[in-house]
Amino acid sequence: HAKKKGNSYLFFNDTMNREAVKRLQIENLMRYGLKEDHFEVYYQPKMNIRTGKLDGMEALVRFITPKKGVISPGVFIPIAEETGQIIEIGEVVLNKACRDVKAWIDQGLFSGRVAVNLSAKQFSLPDLTTRIDVILQKNELPSYFLELEITEGTVMDDPNEAIAVMRSLSARGIHLAMDDFGTGYSSLAYLKQFPLNTLKVDKAFIDDMQSERGRNMVDSIVTIAHNLDLHVVAEGVEQADQVVMLEQLKCQTVQGYYYSKPLSQPEFTAFLQKQLDK
Ligand code: C2E
Ligand code: CA
Ligand code: CA
Ligand code: CA
């Protein structure tokens, strides 16, 4: 037996190694998956509380590998961010989302916007707007139907540069949503300067609505958003009482398992058909 000190050092080293090996495995799986088309797009409805009708949907990437099964975005997205593969993955998602929405519009099933997540790496590409234009044109989808979700971290890196990029997207008619609002470092001073359309209240705040202080917090966020003329979407809504509370707080749109989990393209098509029958 080795000495205790040596042992824990070895263990630490071993854990780090295993972590590094796992990352490399996922990096390789993603490279292969990009070639073999293993990235799919699922859609989660955003429901209007008042009307009970669909306001829009969020496109969420799914990495479905033949050998390792489904790998969670929570696992591969951070690695893809580091390796830069998120740029290519993000374009696959944007392309498929535009393709699917175009088909739903043409079938008369939908006329709203699809929200696509944009990573910080994508956001800082010098030719971002051109890349988006190309994908929209290729799919014959007017920019009106697109919304991009960006996080506080993405825009707070260089707020003035971010404002310029956001303006050029906004000028095209693309809507912009601040994702996971309240979880990054505060952008309150900048919030009014960003050309945003929507503010998405993070699930953490919705989970906290059991307490009065938690409810007051959501109330305050919704008030700030409305004072800035922003639309509010509550994320991660799982329970009926949360919907009731959110309606009282004048939050218009909710997204979460209470209404639906993210659905595959055929599942979402069926969902849209059912919505029409209502
Ligand atoms: P996000 O953008 O905040 O997306 C919402 C996440 O919450 C999704 O997880 C969704 O499935 C999950 N969710 C929705 N409703 C509920 C609910 O009621 N309860 C619970 N517990 N969870 C709910 P998902 O799909 O695993 O994605 C995780 C994160 O990965 C996303 O968080 C986003 O940051 C990132 N991501 C997903 N797709 C993309 C993409 O195409 N591009 C980029 N850059 N990031 C993506
Ligand atoms: Ca999002
Ligand atoms: Ca979010
Ligand atoms: Ca989130």
Automatic annotation (TrEMBL):
Chain ranges of the EAL domain: 23-276
Secretion signal span: none
Protein name: GGDEF domain-containing protein
Organism for this UniProt entry: Pseudoalteromonas gelatinilytica
First and last residues shown, out of full length: 416 to 693 of 704
